[in-house]
Amino acid sequence: MLTVEQTDFYEQNGYLMVEDVITKDELNKLQEITYDFIESSRQVTENDDVFDLDEGHSAETPRLTRIKLPHKQDKYFDEILKNSGVTEVLRDLLGDHATLLTSKLNTKAPGGGMAVEWHQDWAFYPHTNDSLLAFGLMLEDVNLENGPLQVIPGSHKGPVLSHHHDGIFCGAINPDDPNFQREKIVTLTGKAGSMTVHHARTLHGSAPNQSDRPRLILFYEIAKADAWPILGATSYYHGLGQSKFWDDLQDRTIIGEPCVEPRVENVPVRMPLPPAKDASSIFKTQKSGGAKSAFM
Ligand SMILES: O=C(O)CCC(=O)C(=O)O
């Protein structure tokens, strides 16, 4: 699916944009399911296992920051990962054995839907090696107004910056950090059906949604199967116990087989601890952890 130029570009820059990665029918189906979820959030008044609500959410005007773990909410979100153009891109970037870590559908509500402050995913979930990436499938067109993903090319080869504020993990860098090279920012806009990929160590963030339509990006975080999570990071599977973890790992295997011999590399690790008061999502971690905004 990817050309050598594309895989080289990803290797050097730590990000990639792939257009038309899914078919029109696949896109339509994903959109339909997503709008059904947004519709059903009208009944919801508090954050729960499915919805992360944005300020101002109501039955009249649903405002969501996120639909949590979409691959657990509807099997089509799992199917698209394991059997579509997306799967081929992952194979080209990660090889023949790859595992899903988590998924989230960031819905960024119209008229000010929350920014995601600049961060490196790696700070949230260190592993035994850094063959990890996140990709975002655009379910609607993403343009400059609705809060596109932004990245710093090459930052995956640089330092992992501090994501702590006053000794607490706040899930964001300080925008005044001298290693944050704002002048290098690349903005990833694109058509529905496009896919952005970023390495787990690539610095990225996104501004509030200033448009009158939601910004729907379906994110998945994926590891080469020999990258094992380090206990202390946040994910639901850390609390499952061995048996359920093993079953869950089979379910999360996208390509090939699980690997029970972790590849241990000399990677920079600082545990995302102590946690912020509310660590239930990146939005809550950044807010309750006191992260300084880069978008004010
Ligand atoms: O929604 C976005 O723009 C970025 C999401 C992200 O980086 C995250 O959830 O870790």
Structure in a nutshell:
By secondary structure, this protein is α+β, with helices and mostly antiparallel strands.
% residues in beta strands: 15-25%
**What number is the mean pLDDT?**
96
CATH level-two architecture: Sandwich
| Classification by helices and strands | alpha+beta
Given as residue ranges, the uncertain stretches (5+ residues, pLDDT < 50) are none
As for the number of domains, it is 1
Hetero ligands: 2-oxoglutaric acid
The rough form would be described as globular
Q: Alpha-carbon distance between the termini?
A: 40 Å
Number of E-type strands: 14
* Secondary-structure element string: HEHEEHHHEEEEEEEEEEHEH
Largest sheet properties: 8 strands, antiparallel
DSSP helical segment count? 7
* CATH topology-level fold name: Jelly Rolls
Radius of gyration based on Cα positions = 18 Å
Into which percent range does the helicity of residues fall? 10-25%
CATH homolog superfamily: q2cbj1_9rhob like domain
CATH C-level category? Mainly Beta
Explain this structure.
The chain is an alpha+beta fold. The chain has a single domain (4-288), classed as q2cbj1_9rhob like domain (Jelly Rolls, Sandwich), CATH 2.60.120.620. The model has no long low-confidence stretch (mean pLDDT 96). A hairpin with a 2-residue loop joins strand 8 (164-165) and strand 9. The protein is globular. The relative contact order is 0.22. The strands form 3 sheets. Strands 1, 2, 3, 4, 6, 11, 13 and 14 form an 8-stranded antiparallel β-sheet that branches. It is 23% helix and 21% strand. It binds 2-oxoglutaric acid (AKG).
